[in-house]
């Protein structure tokens, strides 16, 4: 298996990359998690997209946003791994690349995420700390987390 990733601004994405990214997000967030919500929130154009590949097939992606778009801090969101590629340790690889991508694009500093609560321990292993109480986001328990 070969692993690779690229980080691109919205305008740098090819039509195929954009389609595959949005398809993956829809497959997981809307269909698999049975969560009808508006994924297209006008933030994609303001950030960077980390596309993670296994054997040249899109296996996961994240959205990296500068401070002031979703939160006061830089943020990582729309974290997703294709069902077909789970169990390969990609979550750690994807998030490590995303953290490095944030530091490269926005400089070192705190990073905020809105994590599905059942993944809190996973994110803690990457240096994120729970902030506040569990809240409902589109019918799924979430918690704010910060990596200093």
Q: Uncertain regions: pLDDT < 50 for 5+ in a row?
A: none
Give the C-level CATH assignment: Alpha Beta
- CATH fold-level topology: Aminopeptidase
Give the integer mean of the pLDDT values: 96
Structural class category: alpha+beta
Q: What percentage of the residues does DSSP assign to strands (E)?
A: 35-45%
Instruction: Count up the domains.
Output: 1
Features:
148 residues; alpha+beta; Aminopeptidase; 3 helices; 7 strands
Describe this structure in words.
There is one protein chain. A 7-stranded mixed β-sheet has the order 1-2-3-4-5-7-6, with helices on both faces. The longest helix has 18 residues. It is globular. It contains 3 helices and 7 strands; from the N terminus they run E-H-E-E-E-H-E-H-E-E. It has one domain: 3-Layer(aba) Sandwich (Aminopeptidase). With 148 residues, it is of the alpha+beta class.
Short structural description:
Helices cover 27% and strands 36% of the residues. The chain is of the alpha+beta class and 148 residues long.
Topology diagram in text:
Layout (H helix, E strand, L loop, with lengths): L2 E7 L5 H18 L15 E7 L2 E9 L8 E8 L8 H17 L4 E6 L3 H5 L4 E9 L2 E8 L1
Parallel strand pairs: 4-5
Antiparallel strand pairs: 1-2, 2-3, 3-4, 5-7, 6-7
